[in-house]
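Continuing the series of single-chain predictions for the mutant panel. This is the parent chain; the variants come on the following pages.
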Amino acid sequence: MRIATGLRGAGVALVTPFHNYGTIDFSSLERMLHHVMAGNVDFIVAMGTTSEAATLTCDEKGAVMNFVKETVKGRVPVVMGLGGNNTHAVVGEIKKTDFDGVEAILSVVPYYNKPSQKGIYNHFKNVAAASPVPVIMYNVPGRTGSNLTAETTLKLVREIENIVAVKEASGNMQQMMEILMRKPEGFQLFSGEDALTFPLMCMGASGVISVAANVVPGKFSQMVHLLMQKKYLQARALHYELLPVFVQLFADGNPAGIKAALEIKGLIKNNLRLPLVKANKTVYYALQKLLKEI
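Parent structure:
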């Protein structure tokens, strides 16, 4: 029987705030955690793409995860981003990690190497075998250069019980519909793109792992919860209200857009780590206008 998780609805891909001099701003991180929980998000994803985990040291990642778990105190489930393009190294990292207080891991399709479907299958087979908590696969070919096909997703799901979900950010609606149509009972598909949350949940997705929920957690969670209740017309109105925000958040890259929005809201400072830089002024002013209207 497939392992059950407490994950449903609106997940937030949490940012990592930085001070002006580059170190992690834990005071702002605490403020962010209280902000998204007050907005009724259903779970928190730390150390995902939006967290700039690729630029954090191992010690920094550990410090952030410990801080998140201590601050959340079990009020909502916590998912940990843990992946890479070296299967042996990912398995080694899993074996050294303390998973107390972690509901699942979010593990990205190996990037840069451009593995075949057989390589991707064997990567996740090894990751799942090593992981003491359920595994959510993360398909984001725009970043990784490799697409996890519907066929490979379904093969992994049918053969490995510890793989419980996929975060789908391929943008390929046909592929995602095929997974939703053919998936076994208990397996979940989460939208990996804010703008596609509404249509995907209408077709049977379990929820979303969202960037926008960092800045508008209340409205975004409300939309998702209405969809879970099959109140599609009310959810659609919120979807269209938020859609211009979704567009601007990604107009100059992620997390540049979301960090600009969070500065506008007075939640964090607009600092990123190279090679990422601040969103351009056009995007900044567009977000300023949209957030004021909302």
